[in-house]
Specification:
Elements: E1 2-3, E2 21-25, H1 27-37, E3 44-48, H2 55-64, H3 70-78, H4 84-94, H5 108-120, H6 123-134, E4 139-142, E5 149-155, E6 165-169, H7 171-175, E7 180-187, H8 195-203, E8 206-209, H9 214-218, H10 225-233, E9 237-241, H11 256-266, E10 274-277, H12 285-296, E11 301-304, H13 318-328
Parallel strand pairs: 1-11, 2-3, 2-8, 3-4, 8-9, 9-10, 10-11
Antiparallel strand pairs: 5-6, 5-7
Helix pairs in contact: 1-3, 1-13, 3-4, 5-6, 8-10, 11-12
Length: 330
């Protein structure tokens, strides 16, 4: 296990434009990762989950039969720059309408993305166009061109029957489950990947999984056969960024090693090079040894560095994470 000195490693020289990086995830975890990565490289592609069925995204996909735009919107907002233009558009994209009318709860960015989808009939081209409007420092792609649904096997979803295994369907329902999630799958099974995402993986220098909701944002990418195959066969190096704390419902009681072992169970052929973890996520020497063992079984080395935000909040700090990634992505 390698530990960073003085919080973050020193910056090393990198090629102009930075390494070619593909990041996988969704929601707030991907937002944090992309906010850091855009500080490190100009050659960045986000491959984003399209299984959200709650809130504004859920309403839109049910009414219009399109991809849920919410996670894609958040990824685009994360790639906005820190200048006035970037901050203005990031805030506009994330703005939610208030009130009690039909627009209440909808994010402006969701509506903008869907409007362009309907005009262009090209999900990837529309996202590229939004990225150009925002001045996004990278590209955002859906992991599949069809809306997906997550289904999980859960033990103890019914408190009256703690040992019974039942099926929970839908990302929103799974995120709120009180049971133990055993495995997830996608509906429809074996969905097609977006070709641009597969190409980006094969052209990448690094592929980064996580952080994020483990069963609903991180693992689903490994259940799209073409994405999984590309991740297994690419010449890119592979990194796993671990969550800071277990997530209520999905991963209650998980250790850092548990997260790695669950990922391995869903993609047995996948190999990793680096597992990045904040030291606060490892409770004692025994958990550290368990994590090192789980990582080694995937061919990876554990790298510990302070990437959490200060103040005890369980969020990755973009500046801290960027400093660490800048050193590792060489």
């Amino acid at each position: 296990m390698i530990e960073a000195e003085d919080g973050a490693p020193a910056r090393r020289d990198r090629a102009p434009g930075g390494p070619r990086v593909v990041a996988f995830g969704g929601g707030h975890g991907m937002y944090a990762c992309l906010s850091a990565l855009r500080r490190v490289t100009d050659r960045l592609t986000a491959v984003v989950t399209v299984a959200d069925d709650g809130g504004s995204s859920g309403r839109i996909r049910r009414e219009l039969a399109v991809l849920p735009p919410g996670d894609l919107r958040m990824a685009l907002a994360a790639l906005c720059g820190d200048d006035e233009w970037g901050r203005t558009w990031a805030n506009a994209l994330q703005h939610r309408f208030s009130g009690d009318g039909h627009l209440a709860g909808h994010a402006l960015g969701n509506l903008l993305i869907v409007a362009l989808w309907e005009q262009l009939h090209d999900p990837v081209g529309a996202l590229d166009l939004v990225g150009r409007l925002l001045g996004a420092q990278g590209r955002v792609l859906p992991m599949s061109a069809v809306p997906l649904e997550i289904e999980a096997s859960v033990r103890g979803a019914d408190p009256a029957h703690p040992d019974a295994i039942s099926t929970v369907r839908g990302q929103h329902a799974l995120a709120k489950t009180s049971g133990e999630v055993l495995a997830v799958r996608l509906l429809p099974e074996n969905p097609p990947a977006v070709p641009e995402a597969v190409a980006a993986i094969h052209e990448a220098d690094w592929a980064i999984l996580g952080p994020g909701s483990w069963f609903t944002s991180v693992l689903p990418h490994l259940l799209v056969p073409e994405l999984a195959e590309a991740l297994i066969t690419t010449r890119a190096r592979r990194m796993l960024v671990l969550n800071l704390v277990p997530q209520a419902g999905e991963t209650d009681g998980y250790t850092a090693a548990d997260h790695v072992e669950v990922l391995a169970a869903h993609a047995p052929a996948l190999r990793l090079d680096t597992v990045l973890v904040d030291p606060s996520s490892i409770r004692g020497d025994e958990e550290g040894r368990q994590l090192a063992k789980a990582a080694a079984e995937l061919g990876a080395q554990v790298y510990t560095a302070a990437v959490a935000a200060q103040g005890g909040v369980p969020y990755h700090d973009p500046e801290r994470l960027a400093a660490v990634l800048r050193s590792l992505l060489v």
